[in-house]
Design a protein that fits this description.
With 217 residues, this protein is α/β, with parallel strands linked by helices. It contains ten helices and eight strands. The chain is 45% helix and 14% strand.
Length: 217
C-alpha cells in the first residue's frame, strides 16, 4: 500500500476552472492584452501563476507579469463571484482515506495565500498533513514540490502516488519515478493526460475513491 497520497487541488478536488478562466480574462482586459480563448486559458491551470502568465503572454516584461498576477489574485480572492466548489464526494473520499491510514498532502500551482482561504472555506484543512504551493518552490512540472514533500514525510517515491488532472502533474511524478493517477473531469483533455502513461485515468471522484481505497502496489 502507498503511505502518502499527494493531490493536486484545482481540477482534481475543486471545480474552479470557470473562476480561474474568468479571472485571467479580467486581468488581461485590465491590461489591454489580446483576448485568448477559454481552451488556451485553461491549459495553463496547474502552473504557478507567473509561469502561467508568461505562457499566455510571453512578451510581457517582469513588472507586467507581477502586475497581471496581482490583478488576477485580487479578482480570484476578493472581487470575482464566479462559483467554485468541491467536486461531489471529495470530503467523503478524504475522510475514508484518513480512516484507512493514508497520509494526505497537496501539491498545487496556487500560491499559499490562494490555497489557505479555500482550505478554510471548505473545512478540509485538518484532513491534510502537508502541502506545497507554487510560490514556495518551483512550479510544476518541475518535481521540486514533490521532492520536498517526500523529505517532509520521510517516505520514498515508491511509497507515494500523485493524483492530478493535468499533464504537469503526470510529468512531475514521472520525473521522480513516482506512480501517478489521472482524473479526466478536470482541465486537461484525457487524451493528452494519457500520453504520460498514468497507472489509470478515472472519470469521477467516486471512481477515484474506489481506486485509492482498493489500490495495491
Amino acid at each position: 500500500m502507498y503511505k502518502l497520497i499527494i493531490f493536486d487541488w484545482d481540477g482534481t478536488l475543486m471545480d474552479s476552472q470557470a473562476r480561474i478562466v474568468a479571472c485571467l480574462q479580467i486581468a488581461a482586459e485590465e491590461m489591454q492584452l489580446p483576448p485568448l480563448t477559454e481552451d488556451t486559458l485553461k491549459k495553463v491551470i496547474g502552473l504557478g501563476l507567473n509561469e502561467a502568465v508568461l505562457s499566455l503572454y510571453p512578451r510581457l516584461q517582469n513588472d507586467q507579469v507581477v502586475y497581471f498576477a496581482d490583478r488576477y489574485r485580487y479578482h480570484f480572492i476578493t472581487a470575482n463571484d464566479t462559483p467554485s466548489g468541491l467536486f461531489k464526494d471529495v470530503r467523503l473520499m478524504l475522510e475514508r482515506l484518513i480512516d484507512r491510514g493514508f497520509m494526505l498532502a497537496i501539491a498545487t500551482g496556487k500560491a499559499r495565500r490562494g490555497l489557505e482561504p479555500v482550505l478554510a472555506e471548505t473545512g478540509l484543512k485538518s484532513l491534510f498533513h502537508g502541502s506545497r504551493c507554487a510560490d514556495e518552490t518551483r512550479s510544476k512540472p518541475h518535481p521540486q514540490m514533490l521532492e520536498e514533500l517526500l523529505d517532509e514525510f520521510a517516505v520514498t517515491a515508491d511509497e507515494t502516488i500523485m493524483v492530478g488532472d493535468t499533464e504537469y502533474d503526470m510529468l512531475m511524478a514521472k520525473s521522480l519515478g513516482m506512480d501517478a493517477l489521472a482524473v479526466s473531469y478536470g482541465v486537461h483533455d484525457k487524451a493528452d493526460i494519457l500520453k504520460h502513461e498514468p497507472l489509470s485515468c478515472v472519470d469521477s471522484v467516486s471512481e477515484l475513491s474506489k481506486w485509492l481505497l482498493n489500490c495495491e502496489k
